[in-house]
Design a protein that fits this description.
Layout (H helix, E strand, L loop, with lengths): L6 E5 L4 E3 L2 E3 L13 E5 L7 E9 L2 E8 L13 E7 L6 E10 L10 E6 L4 E5 L1 E10 L2 E7 L8 E8 L1
Antiparallel strand pairs: 1-4, 2-3, 5-6, 6-13, 7-12, 8-11, 8-13, 9-10, 9-12
């Protein structure tokens, strides 16, 4: 494959044969000649996340979590795997406000691209995908965010802002 990760091209030699003999291409039908290159998929590429924490301000702290790409804000990168954790003091809650949420989904299922939000205290998680717009979710004081995208279709992504209450 022409790349170490993600989508690439694989070349191969194709010869014209008559019986067991290799002959010049002009002796064979071009319409039946196999392709000399094909699409191939190598190992998944590592993703890039942009995590900027806003320092504590009195009783609250917050920050941003955004899948990042050089083409931003158009589409998130393919083959991303990105994890970040948010911790707050015991007894506090983490509120995550999502803006412009749009990840690939098919028939409401989060199979290829998704954000998995895990409440580490309660050991529960939810997979988010699709075109959901703006919304807020509240969790305990320990949360893990895992963003995943595949190589094929990539959408606008999301912006997430968290605040500790």
């Amino acid at each position: 494959c022409s790349t170490n990760c993600g989508k690439g091209l694989r070349d191969r030699d194709v010869f014209c044969r008559i019986g067991t003999f290799v002959v010049h291409d002009s002796n064979c039908d071009r319409a039946t000649k196999p392709r000399t290159s094909d699409t191939c998929y190598s190992d998944e590429c590592p993703g890039v996340c942009d995590v900027a924490f806003i320092p504590p301000n009195g009783d609250t702290s917050g920050g941003f979590f955004t899948p990042r790409t050089r083409r931003r804000p158009r589409r998130y990168p393919g083959n991303s795997r990105c994890t970040t954790w948010i911790f707050a003091e015991e007894g506090r809650s983490i509120v995550i406000s999502f803006g412009g949420f749009w990840l690939q989904a098919r028939k409401g299922r989060c199979r290829w691209d998704y954000l998995l939000v895990t409440n580490l205290v309660e050991n529960t998680s939810e997979k988010l995908c699709g075109k959901m717009g703006n919304f807020r979710l509240t969790y305990s004081n320990e949360v893990q965010l895992f963003f995943r995208s595949d190589a094929r279709k990539n959408f606008r992504g999301f912006r997430a802002r968290f605040q500790v209450e």
